[in-house]
Amino acid sequence: MKKIKDIWQGAEACAYGAMKAGLDFFAGYPITPSTEIAEYLSAMMPKKGKTFIQMEDEIASIVALAGASMAGAKAMTSTSGPGYSLMQEGIGYACMVEAPLVVCNVMRGGPSTGLPTKVSQGDVMQSRWGTHGDHPAIAISPSSVQEMYSMTIEAFNLAEQYRTPVTLLTDETITHMREKIEIDPDKDPPLVRRLCPTCRENYLPYGTFVDDVPVIANLGDGYGTSVTGLSHHDDGFQTADYSISRALIERLSRKVEKHSKEIFDIEVWNEKASIMLVCYGITSRSVKALLARNKECGGGLDIGMVRLKTLFPIHEETLWNSLAHAKHIMVPELNLGQIVHEVKRIVGHQIPVSLISKTGGELINPDELCEEVVKINHAR
Amino acid sequence: MKKNKIKIHKLRCKSCGICVSFCPKKVLAQDESQRLYVLDPSECIGCNICSQVCPDFAIEVIQENEEN
Amino acid sequence: MQGEQYLNPKRIPTIWCPGCGNGIVVHAMMTALDKLSVPSEDVIFVSGIGCSSRTATYAACDNIHTLHGRALPVATAIKLVRPDKKVIVMSGDGDSLAIGGNHLIHAARRNIDLTLIIFNNSIYGMTGGQVSPLTPSGKRGTTAPYGSIEEQFDTVKLLEGAGASYIARSGVSFFQPTVKYMKNAVSHNGFAVVEVITQCPIYYGRMNKHKSPAEMMQWQKENMVSLEKAEKMTEEERSSKILMGEFVCKEKPSYIEKRASMFKELCK
């Protein structure tokens, strides 16, 4: 791959990142505002002998990903709110059978058909708890076209590393906007691929683990791999046994949670500031604009930012350390309050946390943010 | 004369009685507790229907060579 | 038993009720594979949810037991990743025609190279006897205690309209024809379906006054007729019978073939 310095759309950067990550299989269904990602890939993939397929709906798309993944492919789909809702059962299936895959969810206004062409951050908790039952969740949140590229690669790496579905939780604005991107292939992270067994003797699909992640042969390799969404034994056969089922459910979450420190990534500006804004995705662009303007104006406001590049899992100690100096924490979100509850849970017992909420399909502009910050500043 | 051996996998048989009903020569039967047994192996014509209608892979008809 | 090598002996006996016909369908499939001399490493079984969908887990081949109704899109993806393998979907009437109905018609439309076996027992067995899209009108289920007032699908016509290139129907009382259709389906290029009528003696049988599994199978013997025989019957005689045989068998480019030529064209 060559060096690139250009103006790209977020969707294009995502598609390019997926190709860079080694995407083998894409299945999807058209839905605004994610469709451009599928369109870009439908043009790029066949030229490399990779499969792009438009399925009959999102349910078919997500389970196709699980199938392709269990047969050894790096698999991805892109969707938005209503499609993400339809995919939830399949995401749970992927968690249970431990199929690495990437779901790019481009958030739009909800609930229901809502605001198809407008931005929102309403699916944050769905990316954590959308499917039923206890399960692991990894969700990462890009805030620029550049990150639509780099985080797509990261999403594949995390999926392959932990054999679990990963949500690239982006939004309408980041996906549709065009801005500068620079790609230097030498600076891309190394690609991760799941481990596969090499010995057929005594092979059990869920019997060998490296750091709680099973070493499963790909379907089609003829190892006699058996896969089910039912609670299962080490041989992949269903069981309702209490201790086996309990150990399985606990391991599924543990394999991700115990690495939350490595997975959880944040960007901190002015970490000693008394008012800290905790933000993610497109909203962090408004926060950065406010911070830049404040600096230009001589820094009248003592404000800083913690941007969550990872939404789940949250490493609580890391988040706490980044906010420990704050006197007040503000969480701007394009919803009625979702990640704010996580922040309150982690630091709220010592530091006051307030929400800056906006819904209805529009962004929080830096002036609005400024007003809210000034109010808090005066109150203090 | 062709001789056939009927092998019943006792651990697989669920005593549904389908084979008993379908055997054209009434070679198979069930006892009072519905357990399957071979009533008269000499009557077996080796048609293999019992094996084909068995839902539990529990019956095998082994056709022995004529010279044996 | 012929085809024993395709079964995982550790997982047998099956969970199926005594007299359930599902095992006969499985036996026919394993026999067909044996007759075709397909190595078990070259077969991947895919299934959804339901009694018949447990089949995949009994195979000594790679197998994947998926979600209710979703076997076909999973199988489609597996075939696209591993076109060198025989991908066989074992599904029930509720799994493939109710919750999975959309996937069924689209798999047929794509003519994707899969074999689909529909175990038609006219009922939801796993959940305890509710009516399905293949419950004959007037028959009872636990959710239609006064008899179903809905019409059932004609699987053959539905699939033909949707574009499947091989469609056959058989019954568990007709072992040899079933094996023959399965062999043809597995060897077929494109989307191949065999509907096999089987019995659920415990739920469907009891609710619809069938005395025993054997009686249900004898009923099938008397009420299913081959296409050849049916031709000689009057319209009236035919209307009360279930037709069996190979209804559609045509050559047309499969999805895998079309993808291969697209790749070849683009990668020139």
Report on the structure:
- The complex is a heterotrimer of chains A (380), B (68) and C (268).
- By secondary structure, chain A is α/β, with parallel strands linked by helices.
- Chain A contains 13 helices and 18 strands.
- In chain A, strands 2, 3, 4, 5, 6, 7, 8 and 16 form an eight-stranded mixed beta sheet that branches. In chain A, strands 13-15-14-17-18 form a five-stranded mixed beta sheet, with helices on both faces. A two-stranded antiparallel sheet of chain A has the order 1-9.
- The radius of gyration of chain A is 21 Å and the shape is globular.
- Chain B has a single domain, classed as 2-Layer Sandwich (Alpha-Beta Plaits).
- Chain B contains two helices and four strands.
- In chain B, the strands form two sheets. In chain B, strands 1-4 form a two-stranded antiparallel sheet.
- The longest helix of chain B is centred in the first third of the chain and has 5 residues.
- In chain C, the strands form two sheets. In chain C, strands 2-1-3-4-8-7-10-9 form an eight-stranded mixed beta sheet, with helices on both faces. In chain C, strands 5-6 form a two-stranded antiparallel ribbon.
- Chain C is built from eleven helices and ten strands.
- Chain C has a single domain, classed as Thiamin diphosphate (ThDP)-binding fold, Pyr/PP domains (Rossmann fold), CATH 3.40.50.
- Helices cover 39% and strands 18% of the residues of chain C.
- In chain C, helix 1 crosses helix 6.
- In chain C, strand 7, helix 6 and strand 8 form a beta-alpha-beta unit.
- The interface between A and C is large, with 46 and 39 residues.
- Strand 12 of chain A pairs parallel with strand 2 of chain C.
Task: Provide key terms for this protein.
heterotrimer, B: 68 residues, alpha+beta, Alpha-Beta Plaits, two-stranded antiparallel ribbon, 4 strands, C: 268 residues, alpha/beta, Rossmann fold, eight-stranded mixed sheet, two-stranded antiparallel sheet, 10 strands, 18% strand, globular
